[in-house]
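Possible race condition, two jobs.
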Amino acid sequence: ALSAELAVARHAVFLCLIALALVSSVSRGNIINSQPSSATHPGVSVEKMVESTMSTAKRTSAKVEATANKRPRTEATLLHSPVDSDATSSGDEHASPKTVEKKVWGKAYFAHEAINEAGSHRKGEIAFAKPLRLVVAVGGNALQRRGEKLSMENQLKAAMEAAPTLRMLAQQHQVVLTHGNGPQVGALALERKTATFDCLGAESQGQIGLIFAQALGTVGMPAAPIVTQVRVDSSDPAFSNPAKYVGPIYTQDEAEALAAKNGWVVKADGAHYRRVVPSPQPLEILQLEAVRALLDAECGAPPMSLMPIACGGGGVPVRYDETGALRGVEAVIDKDNCGALLANELDADVFIILTDGGGIWENFGKPNAREMCEVTPEYLLSSKTGKEFPGSMGPKIQAAINFVQRATRSEVYAAIGDLRDTPRILPNAAGTLIKKHVEGGVKWRIPADGVAAA
């Protein structure tokens, strides 16, 4: 409609120019010898016709400008993943205009019919009227494929693989990027044995933030890494039971030798062993308002012109001491747990955890293995898959559960999938969606079709 109104305005202006040329010619001489046609426009002079035409042009231009000014940026038709049919946009009748403006970015208007006709969107995708707010968590391991050397070159290569997809998401949605730092902070700890983990965490935020900023900048998506501090409780039980994996993988013999030499605690991570450190629960993100400010600014409106990167490596763990001073804590917060808190605090629609191993599987690695397509928190918590999932996948599943259970809106969901499958996760063609409502509690994926089946 806006394009049509602009065309009308241009046409009116063109007619004005012609009329003005005619008037100018008449006033200068005898180029036009005949009088204005009184048969067609009795009593109407050329000057009157010009004035009338110009008034029409002004009115049309004013209407176009007013329409453009009041048209919200969020009306673009976008592609998102399937969601619950009872999804609604919850509002607050007593919210101030400023509050309502902020809230609209966190609400999605959901459609219910897939577009499957010829020439339409890819199977499984659904058109929505408003963009989503996404918090996307990329694991530190996703920047270092298993067996590859932890080098800046390899990490930048992995980030470059993800950058075009992240940029594509930011063209359609609001995206906040967070990332892990397990391999990176562990390597820094090997290099600088006297440094505390709060300082190493801040260093890893700068290192990985730089990697993503360069990769995203290369594809035309500027990014703003934020050194983020996260408050924890110094009496958290995690300090007596280290469980956060950091550093490279080792054989059992290598891990036990290093533990004896350096006083480490090591645990099995799949078929390998890694160092573990305390991982307390995140309680408060101290730079949350900085992230909100970027999202609420013009640069945060889709298509975004600046992507925030926050809570890298779970954030720098800090606490307030007896004097009220802010102090670092010797620990590493789980990035997925902190990412879930970030997503809840920002009222995100989707919390996406990207890994180097796909979604949630039953009997992973066995002939009868199958991947969950959609699943509820209750199903995961009642099964071995959710309660006792081995290695580093367990915290990811628990973080997804936490986000969904804490969310106040029924349509929000979490997603776990491989970094290389990112474009197919929102359309529900890859990975696993954790939702409040799934018929039967779980749906399993049919590999041949890439769609869900009960």
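Job #2 (started ~2 s after job #1):
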Amino acid sequence: MIANRTAALAFRRSRQTVTNAPHYYRSYSLTAPATTSSSAAASDASSSPPRVQSSKPPKNVYMWGTSKKGTIPTNLLQEATESSAGMFSGDEKIVDHPMRLDLEKGALNGYLFGEDKGKSGGDDDDDVCLEKVYCGASGTAIVLGDGRCFVVGSNKNGELGIGSAKKDTSKPIHLPLPDPVAKASLGPNFSALLTTTGDLYTFGYGGSRLNGMGCLGQGNTDSHPTPTLVNSLIEDGCYAADVHCGEYSMTVLTTEGEVLTCGSGAYGRLGNLETIDQLYLEPVELMGAEDVTQIAGGFAFSLALNSGGIIHAWGRNNEGQLGTGMGLGADMYAMESLPREIEGNLQGRNVTRIAAGHSHAAAVTSDGALFTWGMNDTHEPKLQTTLLHTKIVDVACGQNYTLALDEEGRLYSMGKGKTGVLGLASTKVSNQPILIEGIPEGEKVASMSCGWAHVACTTELK
């Protein structure tokens, strides 16, 4: 263990080579291309910092769902009108089909910087480009090509990291970090930013004896209104590769394939049998022998995928979200306090992608099949047979809905559409995946992000 935290951080940064974004880790990152193989990812496991790769900016960005407190930048939506964009209720606006953001320099700069254009960091804001949009529980994070991160939405519990004085913001606010941001995970009570150097910053609600303590991984119950470095990872020589923020617990994946958890131990969320809280990030012991390549999580549960294509799940299971079965019916107290392998229809199959929503989850297998479970619909993996005509390569989940991406770059949605998240120009329920037709034929979806009530995707030319 390195005693001098400042020296350790300086040493770590001296070893990095940071290019001008985007920043992808092996197969860990949610922004990674859907075709990334787990076998290739496994060969790259080491304690060295995550590698930085460059790519071209996305051709277009589309968003839809419910915009509340600016989670969807409606002023950037092209051809947005009341009749075409959906319904209004107070400060909420439902956009029930994909709408393209105006990313021309003038429009984007005006949205991000307003009258103070150019004062938010960087030497040349004329070259600004939007790299990735991360949709969270009640907020949105926008990451630029140079790694700067801006946030909008609710800050009720400090989950945007913009300081305690603001409860919410519909105008993007820059979160200054010493290194470029690679990923954002915006939870309902707290959030985390992952940098290209493998450092982790957390902010928001620190927990309580009633709700659970230590979700920020800072070794105490203090809340942090702005991004704060998780020093314990540096002391232990760990580099973070992915992070998920749940209700009152956090799950982290390191570049060595180790899974760490902290926060509330209720309902087995930490995966270590005991239901006591953890103030620091600690290893999930039963996953120690696994080479984990992906993690995913929902409101109070976590999933981990190993290099052999097997998923383990732990945490709350009241709606069958763990996929491990629940006997004759749902139990509001159902849980798994230790990682348990998901079998059923996935037994003998090689899983390549996983995703989790509020209370359900999904997986994609190497042969392009999509399986879903949870939401009190099914307690074990269910094959989505209507997609057998195509090969699914990626999946994302929000609150009671799922998006699936096929190898041709086409996007399908299913679930509850009340908030417009299905993108089908409707707010009705769809019990089976339906093609989202609002994205032009000449474009293919490259990445997607599902919040609780809003969606973003990037596209490229075919």
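The longest strand covers residues 60-68.
Logs attached separately.
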